[in-house]
Structures are given as structure tokens and as C-alpha cells.
Design goal:
Elements: H1 6-11, H2 13-16, H3 22-30, E1 33-37, H4 43-53, E2 57-61, H5 86-97, E3 102-106, H6 115-118, E4 124-127, H7 132-145, E5 149-155, E6 158-164, H8 172-175, H9 190-208, E7 217-222, E8 227-232
Parallel strand pairs: 1-2, 1-4, 2-3, 4-5
Antiparallel strand pairs: 5-6, 6-7, 7-8
Helix pairs in contact: 4-9
Bound molecules: zinc ion (ZN).
């Protein structure tokens, strides 16, 4: 297990003062490995905040290149990066934000054939996606490996988030039965900023062991009325993905 060095103790001083966090919590983050699928609107704030918080190993997967129409929300990518791979842009920025952590990137599309290789060694995975086909793939990977999945989704000024702990909580298949059709949906950058920050908060809480996770709770954010609501959820015993899993 990697220990904190003197630079860590200065860099992370303010967050180690959070009740229950301390050097022990920071050490857990330094030894954590997380996989993020998608380096766009959600993946940008998630990866930035996990990098500055000192998560030791971050794996990012996205095969897309940056387009002008991405720049209203994908804050890790800048005007100069148009036509550059998101994986490349992300690695460069995150290495500059915090050179002490390991950033691994893959410019690939995750599918059943490669997902095990892409997220090898990940202690948790994060859904920073814009489509349910890939979400279901990541959900199955998380359930199969019994590692948490931090779900987030945005549409316009609305967003949702929940934390999946396989065998203990709902999985995405317990609540979403079909793959909704793919479409170009409206979105403004502040929405994934809110939801991505919530997902990153959940990740930090999970590894440091503080607080209460969004377990069996779907948080629904409405930026138009500025309301947060939550729906309590129960596992589906007939869920095709996690139905047979016991705690
Ligand atoms: Zn399920």
C-alpha cells in the first residue's frame, strides 16, 4: 500500500481536515483505481475532481475526437483541441492538474469483448455516458466484478444520479428495462457540472468511507425549478443482471 508523502500532506491538507477523512482516508484514495467511461460533459468534471482529490489511478475510455459542438459543456477540452482525441486531451490536462497520479487513457469503444481489459484493476467504475447501451454494458461489468458503479445522466437542465453497490442495491437494469432510443439531446454545461460533481462526491465518500451513499436512492435534479428530489428504489428480484446476486 502506497503511503502519503510530504507533498501529499500539503496538497490535500484542506480535505484531510474533513471529519472522518484524515490521512487514512487520503491514503485510501491514493491507492484507489477508478474507471471512467466517457470523457465528455460528465467525464470532464468527474475526472478533474478525482484528479485534484488525489485518486491514485484513473482510467479513461472514449474513442471520440473533440468537435466544436462539444465545447459548451466538455470543460476538459478547449478550443485548441478540436479534432484531437478526447483521450489524448484528457491525459494531457489531468497530468498537468496533478502530476502525482497515474492517468491511463484508451481511445476505444468499450464493448463486451474489451471491457475487462480496459478496466482491469479498477476498484470502481463511473458512468459518464450519453447512451444506455454503453451504460448497460458498464452496469453488467460492475455487477459481474462486484464493484460499485456511479451512475449519472443529464438532459437539458435535468440530471439524475445513483450509486450501485452490486448485491446490496439496485443495478441500472433493475430500474431501466429497455434501451431508450439514441438521440441528440439538449444540454448546457452547468447540468453535467452539477451531476458530475455529485458522482465524484460519491466516489470520494465511497473510498474514504465517510457519509451515506446514494444507495437505493435515485437523486433527481431539476435546474429549471432548482429542486433536488429523490426516489427510493428497491432491487428487482427478477433483474436479468443482478437478480441472482446475494450480498
Ligand atoms: Zn439489477
Amino acid at each position: 500500500m502506497k503511503q502519503l508523502n510530504e507533498s501529499d500532506k500539503i496538497r490535500f491538507d484542506r480535505q484531510m481536515r474533513i471529519n472522518g477523512w484524515g490521512e487514512n482516508g487520503q491514503k485510501k484514495l491514493k491507492n484507489a483505481s477508478v474507471g471512467i467511461l466517457g470523457i465528455g460533459g460528465l467525464g470532464s468534471p468527474i475526472s478533474i475532481y478525482l484528479a485534484v482529490a488525489g485518486v491514485g489511478r484513473i482510467i479513461l475510455v472514449d474513442r471520440d475526437t473533440i468537435e466544436l459542438s462539444n465545447l459548451n459543456r466538455q470543460i476538459l477540452h478547449w478550443n485548441r483541441d478540436i479534432n484531437v482525441l478526447k483521450a489524448q486531451s484528457a491525459k494531457q490536462k489531468l497530468n498537468e492538474i496533478n502530476p502525482d497520479i497515474e492517468i491511463i487513457t484508451y481511445a476505444e469503444t468499450a464493448d463486451e469483448g474489451n471491457v475487462d481489459k480496459l478496466f482491469e484493476g479498477a476498484d470502481a467504475v463511473i458512468d459518464a455516458l450519453d447512451n444506455f447501451e454503453s451504460r448497460f454494458l458498464l452496469n453488467k461489468f460492475a455487477v459481474d466484478h462486484k464493484i460499485p458503479l456511479f451512475h449519472g445522466a443529464v438532459w437539458g437542465l435535468e440530471g439524475r444520479a445513483t450509486t450501485v453497490l452490486p448485491g446490496k442495491t439496485i443495478c441500472l437494469r433493475c430500474i431501466y428495462k429497455e434501451v431508450p432510443s439514441k438521440e441528440i439531446f439538449p444540454v448546457v454545461g452547468v447540468t453535467p457540472a452539477v451531476i458530475g460533481s455529485i458522482q465524484a462526491t460519491e466516489v470520494l465518500k465511497y473510498f474514504t468511507g465517510i457519509g451515506e451513499l446514494l444507495a437505493n436512492r435515485l437523486l433527481i435534479y431539476d435546474g429549471e425549478t432548482m429542486e433536488f428530489n429523490q426516489v427510493m428504489l428497491n432491487r428487482d428480484p427478477n433483474c436479468p443482471v443482478c437478480g441472482n446476486l446475494t450480498d
